[in-house]
Amino acid sequence: MSDAPVDVESVSKTYGTVQVLAPASVRLSAGQGAAVVGPNGAGKSTLLRLVAGTEKPTSGTVTVLGEPADRARRRRRDEIVRLLGPLPSYPDLTVAEHLRLVEVAWSGRHPGPDVDEALAEATLDRVRDQFPAELSSGETQMFALVATLYRPASLVLLDEPEQRLDARWREVARHLVVRALDQGRTVLAATHDPGLRDVLADRGPVVELAEPTR
Ligand SMILES: Nc1ncnc2c1ncn2[C@@H]1O[C@H](COP(=O)(O)OP(=O)(O)OP(=O)(O)O)[C@@H](O)[C@H]1O
What we know:
It is built from 7 helices and 9 strands; from the N terminus they run E-E-E-H-E-E-H-E-H-H-H-E-H-E-H-E. With 214 residues, the chain is of the alpha/beta class. The strands form 2 sheets. Strands 6-7-8-3-9 form a 5-stranded parallel beta sheet, sandwiched between helices. Strands 2-1-4-5 form a 4-stranded antiparallel beta sheet. This is ATP-binding cassette domain-containing protein.
């Protein structure tokens, strides 16, 4: 069995009689990035859920950090972070307090930057003392991305991190992904953002999923 951070071999997914992901493969070495691209409904989120181990493939294999993805999800959870939907959050903790919580939870392993620096570089410092329900949709997404990348995990799974972000914040999101790669982390991201696709294509494969057939 491969020890690569991500090794997806001919994986497909069928719900009932409908195949929503045609066989796809991708292998990532440590520190590589990969973009998963394709039209709406092509199966990008499905592929990411299979890698995250939250769903099982209909055929093929998904190996993550040397283990079947569903086992890796539990046994290697400290090494894997995912943003595949809304960020679970505490209604009574501020933006800054959420990052502080992540920092404390991974104390001793957290490489920084500190909370205020992390918020400032994402231009989220102006909302540092607001609660999740008080954020705009773009602020919510940026907060989710920053909090996700704040986990010192070696494998990062992102589903359209650019969603709801304006052009300026899309650029910040790309910068944060590049930094994660520069830190030696492995990043697998579904995206509709050509800029993010290019950034990831510089660091590894592009997985092109075809138009859904139904
Ligand atoms: N639980 C489910 N039951 C049946 N069909 C599903 C289920 N989940 C997803 N699908 C279908 O699977 C297909 C792929 O969905 P998926 O969310 O993976 O696409 P996507 O490429 O991420 O799309 P988008 O770019 O719109 O986010 C879609 O046609 C969707 O309707």
